[in-house]
Amino acid sequence: LELLSIPLYVLAGLARTRTGSQESALKYFLLGAFASAFQVYGIALVYGATQSTSLAGITATIAVQGSTPLLLSGIGLVIVGFCFKVGAVPFHMWTPDVYEGAPSVVTAFMSVGAKAAGFAALIRVFFEGFELVAVEWAPLMAIFAILSTLVGNISAISQKSIKRMLAYSSIAHAGYLLIGVAANSVSGNDLGTSSVLFYLVAYAATNLVVFFILILLVNMIGSHQITNFGGLARKMPWIAIIFTVALISLIGLPPTGLFVGKIYLFSAAIKSG
């Protein structure tokens, strides 16, 4: 995760002549360093409680001694680190500023690569290492899922910049993905995990299309303001159609991939109660 994050701090500031790009890089780096510190301290507490950093070793120790305050404190701090990486509320403050300030190509990679890697690592650690105490941390994941979907979707409505709007969209989708994580931890079956992985693939493909078209349009228009995209259907109908379909997919309307992804996620949540 750090090997992914450190290059992203540099890439965010790649537009060296733009102060917004420099600001986004510095903000991302400082907040990312804090989040990494929380995560490493959490790992240290988990090691203190289980005498192991191996996921199998942690599980074996938990099976013998159960949950302890030290272990739960460590898990809580690890959750903070992961929630920052995936841009979940309340650790999302960096997302809109960094998405807006970074070059659009970098933002596209960040919205797909960083989120996918963050969730892949989160699933691995929590379902291989901390599954036996899932009843302790699942409610926290559920709360973060609710907050992320609410804050992401409501805040997106008032945005003037399309990149900031997509940043809040990214936060909302992190919330949807956390629904699958919480559902899997409660039910103990793999439906939540498979639904998260399916949703990640569908989201990555859709978001790449959105950003590819966005980069094309911004190069022509020279602005990220949503009002400047007026009349696109008349000037470039095919681009407008593809853009519309991709945005409809992000909303989750049928018959798009993210509609199917949402069915899987909500099915997992309902089956887990």
| Gap between N and C termini | 32 Å
Biggest sheet architecture: none
Poorly predicted tracts of residues: none
Radius of gyration: 19 Å
Number of helices: 12
Round the mean pLDDT to the nearest integer and report it.
Answer: 89
| Global structural class | mainly alpha
H-E order: HHHHHHHHHHHH
Percentage of residues assigned to helices:
over 70%
Looking at how many chains there are and whether they match, the oligomeric state comes to single chain
In one word, what is the shape? globular
Strand fraction equals: under 5%
**Number of DSSP E strands:** 0
Notes on the structure:
The mean pLDDT is 89. The two termini are 32 Å apart. The chain has twelve helices and no strands. Helices cover 81% and strands 0% of the residues. The protein has helices at residues 2-12, 19-50, 55-65, 69-86, 94-101, 104-128, 134-157, 162-187, 191-221, 232-235, 237-251, 257-271. The chain is mostly helical and 273 residues long.
What layout of secondary structure does this protein have?
Layout: H1 2-12, H2 19-50, H3 55-65, H4 69-86, H5 94-101, H6 104-128, H7 134-157, H8 162-187, H9 191-221, H10 232-235, H11 237-251, H12 257-271
